[in-house]
Prior knowledge:
Elements: H1 6-23, E1 27-32, H2 36-40, H3 51-62, E2 72-76, H4 84-94, E3 101-111, E4 115-125, H5 132-142, H6 146-149, E5 153-158, H7 167-176, E6 184-187, E7 192-200
Antiparallel strand pairs: 1-2, 1-7, 3-4, 3-6, 3-7, 4-5
Helix pairs in contact: 4-5
Amino acid sequence: GYIVPKNQQKKEKTKEKDSKKEKGPRYYGLLPEIDLHELLDHRLSGSQVPPHLSEFWKKLVEDKRITKRPHVTIVHRKNIQQYERLWAACQRINTSQSAPMFTMKLGHVICDGCVMAITVDSLEPRVRTDEAMDEEAIRFSSDLPHELSLALHITVGTREENINAYEARALVERWKKGKEKHLANAPLGGVVVHGRLKGLFG
């Protein structure tokens, strides 16, 4: 059969990327300034950590399945109709010249044998003086719908490629509602991380 030349393949991929960018982001998320290895290596290696949790972490490290670009999803394009105001607020913050920084308090590392995630227990803007965008950021975090704040998390990694990272969201929701009390978990002792809101395409 006909083999597409490599330079043509590259052009087609660039076209795909450009058309995606024209449509706008696929979702908005916070990009925490965090190194998952640094955060979890020692926290998941002590004798007090459930063996299931430390073993899963070791496997993720060995198999190089740790999320390369940790993020906290806020809202997806497919849910624009439901969260129109939130999407518009994300757009304004994302395109601002002085994008605000947000503070996230991390809760627990949890794992069900398929996916590992970190719960985000609170989200607040880091308020600066006399910045107009502060008001927008404060309104954004206070108006975040409860069902979305309940699902805030960072996906650490999945056991295999065919397991969708999106499964972490449902897992975190169930955990926060107290429906997954048996889950292997480890508290993070109120670790605080910072990050900015970005429109993401991946």
